[in-house]
C-alpha cells in the first residue's frame, strides 16, 4: 500500500514539475538579460495569441478528438456533477474568505472578479499536459485500465490517456456552461462598474468652472417651472379624485398590473437568452468541435 502511494506521489510530482519547468523558462526569458530580455514586454501579447491559436487549440483538438467519443461519456456523469460541485464550492469558499479580516477586499467590484477567478481556473490546457505524464506510470494506467489482462503496457497507457481526456472534456462542459451563465455576466458587470468608477474619479479631479449669472438665472426659471408643474399636477389629481365613482379604489393605478407583467416577461426573456447563449458558446467550444 505504501509503495503504491509513493508511486502515485512520484508520478504527480513528475507531471507537475514539467509545468513548473516550462513556467520557469518563460519567466526567466521575460526578465533576462536585464537590459534586453529574450521575451520583451512588448512581444507578450503577440506571443500569447500565437501560443493560444497555434499551440493550445491544436493540442486540445488532437487530444480530445483522438479519445473522446459520445459512447465514452456515458459513464462519466459523476464528473459532470463533480464539476458543478467544485465550481460552486470554490465560489462559496472565496466568498467566505472574503469576509475574513485578513482576506477582505474592500472594493466590491474587485471582489466579484476575484470570486469568478477562483471558481473558474484553467481546466483544459494544464490537465492535457499533466495527465499523459501521469499515465506513463504503471500504478496509474493499471488503475485506469479495465480491459483484458493480456493487454500490453502501450494499450493500457493509451486507454488511460483517452479516459483522462474524456474526463477533462466532461468537466470542461460543466465549466464552460456555468462560465457563460454566471462567470461572464459577472465579469462584464464588474468591468462596467469599474469603468464608471474610473470615469467618476476622472471627472472629480478635473477643474470645475465657477457658475455664471446665466446659470443662476436658468436655475431660477427651472425652480419656477417645477413649482408651477407641481401645482398643475395637484389640481389634476384633485379633479381626478373627484371624478372617481363610488365603490372604486382610487389608489389602483391603471396599467400597473400590465407593467409588472411586462417586466416579468422581460426578466424571463433575459434568463432564456442567457441560457441559450451559454449553450451556443459551449457547443462552439474546441472540445465539442473536436469530438
Q: Could you walk me through the main structural features you see in this protein, from its secondary elements to its overall organization?
A:
- Helices cover 76% and strands 0% of the residues.
- The radius of gyration is 30 Å and the shape is globular.
- Residues 238-244 have low confidence and may be disordered.
- Helix 2 runs antiparallel to helix 7 (153-205) and helix 3 runs antiparallel to helix 4 (108-119).
- It has 291 residues and is mainly α.
In short:
The protein is mainly alpha-helical. Helix content is 76%, strand content 0%.
List keywords for this structure.
291 residues; mainly alpha; globular
Strand-helix topology:
Layout: H1 2-31, H2 44-67, H3 77-97, H4 108-119, H5 125-134, H6 138-144, H7 153-205, H8 213-242, H9 256-283, H10 286-290
Helix pairs in contact: 1-5, 2-7, 3-4, 3-7, 4-7, 5-7, 6-7, 7-9
Q: Rough shape? A: globular
Round the Cα radius of gyration to an integer and report it.
30 Å
What would you call the structural class? mainly alpha
How would a crystallographer describe the biggest sheet?
Answer: none
Low-confidence segments: 238-244
Number of strands: 0
Q: Quote the beta fraction.
A: under 5%
Please give the alpha-carbon distance between the first and last residues. 38 Å
- Mean pLDDT score, rounded? 78
Number of helices, counting only DSSP H or I runs of 4 residues or more? 10
Could you state the order of secondary-structure elements as H and E? HHHHHHHHHH
What share of residues is helical?
A: over 70%
Oligomerization state = single chain
Amino acid at each position: 500500500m505504501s509503495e503504491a502511494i509513493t508511486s502515485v506521489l512520484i508520478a504527480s510530482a513528475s507531471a507537475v514539475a514539467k509545468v513548473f519547468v516550462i513556467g520557469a523558462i518563460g519567466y526567466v526569458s521575460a526578465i533576462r538579460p536585464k537590459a534586453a530580455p529574450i521575451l520583451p514586454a512588448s512581444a507578450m501579447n503577440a506571443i500569447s495569441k500565437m501560443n493560444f491559436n497555434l499551440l493550445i487549440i491544436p493540442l486540445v483538438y488532437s487530444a480530445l478528438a483522438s479519445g473522446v467519443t459520445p459512447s465514452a461519456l456515458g459513464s462519466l456523469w459523476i464528473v459532470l456533477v463533480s464539476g458543478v460541485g467544485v465550481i460552486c464550492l470554490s465560489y462559496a469558499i472565496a466568498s467566505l474568505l472574503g469576509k475574513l479580516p485578513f482576506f477582505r477586499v474592500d472594493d466590491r467590484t474587485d471582489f466579484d472578479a476575484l470570486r469568478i477567478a477562483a471558481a473558474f481556473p484553467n481546466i483544459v490546457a494544464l490537465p492535457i499536459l499533466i495527465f499523459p505524464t501521469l499515465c506513463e506510470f504503471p500504478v496509474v494506467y493499471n488503475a485506469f485500465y479495465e480491459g483484458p489482462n493480456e493487454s500490453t503496457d502501450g494499450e493500457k497507457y493509451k486507454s488511460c490517456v483517452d479516459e483522462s481526456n474524456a474526463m477533462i472534456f466532461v468537466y470542461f462542459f460543466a465549466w464552460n456552461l456555468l462560465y457563460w451563465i454566471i462567470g461572464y455576466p459577472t465579469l462584464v458587470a464588474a468591468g462596467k462598474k469599474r469603468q464608471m468608477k474610473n470615469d467618476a474619479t476622472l471627472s472629480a479631479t478635473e477643474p470645475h468652472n465657477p457658475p455664471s449669472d446665466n446659470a443662476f438665472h436658468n436655475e431660477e426659471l427651472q425652480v419656477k417651472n417645477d413649482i408651477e408643474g407641481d401645482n398643475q399636477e395637484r389640481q389634476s389629481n384633485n379633479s381626478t379624485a373627484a371624478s372617481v365613482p363610488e365603490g372604486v379604489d382610487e389608489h389602483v393605478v391603471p396599467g400597473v398590473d400590465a407593467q409588472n407583467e411586462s417586466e416579468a416577461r422581460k426578466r424571463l426573456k433575459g434568463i432564456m437568452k442567457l441560457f441559450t447563449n451559454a449553450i451556443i458558446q459551449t457547443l462552439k467550444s474546441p472540445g465539442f468541435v473536436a469530438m
